[in-house]
Design a protein that fits this description.
mainly alpha
């Protein structure tokens, strides 16, 4: 629960950074409609995470619906479609909001690992946590893509890993 709560808090910080960027006379303002749609998507994700946490707290309850996983799959496909092809690994960074996406992405991965451990510890836990784990996995994928979209909106290049 703590990992999911921490992730949700970091998404709240990301939303605040995006809103601050929308009011600033920067490149984000030129992408205001897209970033407002991102803010709305992040709000939906925050609500999903409350449902996910409720489902962890109350085994047997179904609060996170499979349609929410499908929505994430759709966002991944849509938001990745017109990004430049990756030719190298990306380091977290670029803009402040993109770096915040990477923090949230890593927290989603940690929450996924914690949920996997919980699934192993509970009788029938694997099946009880399957959708929740998939949701967190897909969320981390979308946050990676979102970090790239935000950098693009701000005119910032992705920070590429360089071999020594």
């Amino acid at each position: 629960m703590g990992d999911v709560d921490e992730l949700n808090s970091q998404l709240g910080l990301l939303r605040a950074q995006l809103k601050a960027g929308l009011s600033a006379p920067q490149a984000l303002a030129a992408h205001a409609a897209e970033m407002q749609a991102v803010d709305e998507a992040l709000r939906q994700v925050q609500n999903d995470l409350f449902n996910l946490g409720g489902q962890i707290s109350c085994p047997g309850m179904t609060l996170l619906m499979p349609e929410r996983l499908q929505q994430l799959d759709d966002w991944v496909a849509r938001d990745n479609a017109d990004l430049p092809r990756l030719t190298e690994f990306i380091l977290p960074g670029g803009s402040l909001a993109a770096a915040q996406c990477h923090i949230a992405r890593t927290l989603a991965r940690r929450a996924e690992r914690s949920l996997t451990a919980l699934g192993h510890a509970l009788e029938d836990g694997e099946s009880q946590t399957a959708l929740l784990r998939q949701y967190l996995n897909r969320l981390s994928d979308w946050l990676f893509i979102l970090s790239r979209r935000i950098n693009l909106a701000l005119g910032q290049a992705d920070v590429l890993w360089q071999r020594d």
